[in-house]
Each structure stands twice: as C-alpha cells, then as structure tokens.
Amino acid sequence: MQRRFFGRHYALAVTAIIFLALLAAAGLRSTPGVLMVPWGEAFGWSRQTISFAAAIGIFLFGLTGPFAAAAMQRFGIRATIITALAMMSLSSAASLFMTESWQLILTWGVVSGIGSGCITNVLSATIVNRWFVTNRGLVMGLFAASTSTGTLIFLPVLSAISIDHGWKLVVFCVALTMALMIPLVFFWLPERPADVGSVPFGADPDHPVEVQERGNPLKTAFSALGEGIRSRTFWLLAVTFFVCGFTTNGLVGTHMIALCHDHGMDAVAAGGLLAIMGLFDLVGTTASGWLTDRVDPRKLLFAYYGVRGLSLIYLPFADFSFYGLSLFAVFYGLDWIATVPPTLALANQAFGIKKAPILFGWISASHQIGAASAAFFAGALRTSTGSYLESFLIAGVVAVIAAFLALAIQTKSRPASPMPA
Known about the structure:
The chain is mainly alpha-helical and 421 residues long. The protein has 16 helices and no strands. It is globular and about 60 Å long. The protein starts with 10 loop residues before the first helix and ends in a 14-residue tail after the last helix.
C-alpha cells in the first residue's frame, strides 16, 4: 500500500526530514565560529589554535563525503544518518569537559567533522537522485539553502546564549538538537520510494526499482575517484568548488564574527549580520536550484563566483557601518551556497545520476579542503599580522578567477528521467 504525506507524494516528507537534518548539521558546523572568542577568553587559546580545530573539522567534513555516499548505497541512508547524528551529539557533549586544546581538536575537529561529513551535499545528492526524477535542481537548491537557514536560526540564538549564559550552554543545546533528530529519522525516513509503495517524484508508474549496492564502500568510493581524476570536467568542478569553500564557510563562516569583534561589534550583532546573509542565501540558493533546471549551469557559476569575489574585495572597505555591512550581506548572501545546484547538475551530466553522488562527494571534499585552508590560514594571518584584510582580499581575487574557470567546463546532455536499476 502506498504511503502518503498529508495526501501528497512521500518525497515531500523525505525532503522535510533531510532539510531538518542538514539544518542541524549546519548549526553544529557554525558553532566554532560563534565560540571562537569565548573559548579564547575561557582557556587562553589563540585564534590560530581554535582555527586549527575548526579547520580539521571542516577538512574531515569534506573528506568523509564520498565514503558517506558509498556507505549510504551499501548500508542505507537511515543507518548512516543516525550514526552521524549520534557522533555529533556525543562529541559535542564530551567537549563540555575539555580542558586542553587537543580535546577541542578531537571533539569539534575529528569526531564532529566525520559525523557532520555524512550529512552534507552528498546526502542531498543521494536523496535528490533517488527520490526525484523531475525538479532535481529545485530540491537540491532547497537542501543547499538549509545550510544558510541553519545559519539564520542558530547563529543569533547561539551568540545570545554565549553572552548571557556562557559557552557550555551553547554546546549543550547543539548536542541536544542532534540527539532529538535521531528518532525523527528512525521512524519517518524510508530508504527508497519502493519501501512506501511509491516511485520517485515525477516518475512513471512502471519506473524500475533501484537495486541496493552490495560492494565494499571503500572500493566504490576510490573507484569513482579513479574515474574522476581522468576527467577534465571533474578537475574544473573540484577546483571551482575548492574556491567555493575557501570563500564561504572556511573564511566568512569561521571568521566573520571574530572580524566584526575586531571592529567593535558585539557577538549578537555579528551573528545577526550572518543571519541576514543566511536569509538572502535561502532565497538565492532556492532560486539557483530553480534556475539550474532551466539555464546553463556554467553561466550560473560564472555569475555566482564573480559576484562573490567582488563582494569580498569590497568588505574590508565597508567601514563596518550599518549600511556598508548590509550591502555586503545582501550581495554576498544571495550566492553563499548558490553554487551547489549547478555544480551537482554538471556532475550529473558528466557522470550519470548513479555515480554522480559519490563523485560529487569527492568534489565536495575539495570544497572542504578549500574551507579548511581558509579557516586555518585566516586565523594564522590574524595572529601574525593582527588583521584579516589580506585574507579577504585574496579570497575575493580567487573567486573572480573561479568565475572564468567555470566557463571552461565541458557539458554534454544526459536524459534527466531514467534512473539506473
């Protein structure tokens, strides 16, 4: 018997659950940015030390992606997500008792990095390709927007909590949020459309049932990488996505609150600024998904990276006034994660919808390597020079370069509807 969601296709319920899981993981990954100053004051750790822990987490967040995608094919989406949520909840809770910097690296770097790496773009790509035949770009845009929505919801709230009640309550709230997601996923998230007597959204009634993979996840992930490294398209997508990470969560997501603190803004005001960016990215990324179904993805990437680069070059000269920062928040926010839907679309075109999630995982790994690089080096530059100026100018220039690289990506048409059995 077909299971419905308020009379609608059950893919809508799956979309809502995955959106919430991605939102929660985004909140966890943004927490080090909120607590960079409080941790420094509580333990005497430098920005460089805390940035290193954040960079480890971001790096593992990305490196886990392709293996998580392969694990989802072998062990199931639900089991993978529940394991990841448990890791994030337990590691966050354990950090309440830390006294040394290596414990920060272990909890917020290693364990939470691996856990959150299972609930990221590769999860989005797997769900989109498994549950949807039509509107893939739009749904991928919604999932990508969950990252900005997580920023929108969590940053101002967590910043206020850290000021009024200290960093430990912030960590407790994050750990509790991860734990509360586990029963939702366990009871309401099926593995595939056939489990609820349905077919993917937009598919014909005789759509073939997807067969679960039985191969070794490690071998599957590395085999996909071997195919990818022989492709020019893969390298161009990886390089441009490296720049995406370098110019978003690695730099702005990790250091924006600390940058504002350097210019006399309190944490709540700075968190509010990031929330504004999140609000505009919610609009921009959802619109990007809609456009990806209709416009050449390369042209979209050219526009997104170009606008982002110019925004970052402008920021150091914004004098940190209300109007100056608001202008930055609008233009930068509109394309924070807007690059995700067109990047996945290009991966689907190049590699097919069955292999694309794993290869997209490797491409996303380059995104997080870029983010980890920015998180660490911006902190190191701030420690050595006392300023973030050079970090933001460099990021702006490389984003403009990425805009032109995106135009060099080769495309080929692939049918959108069939899904391999």
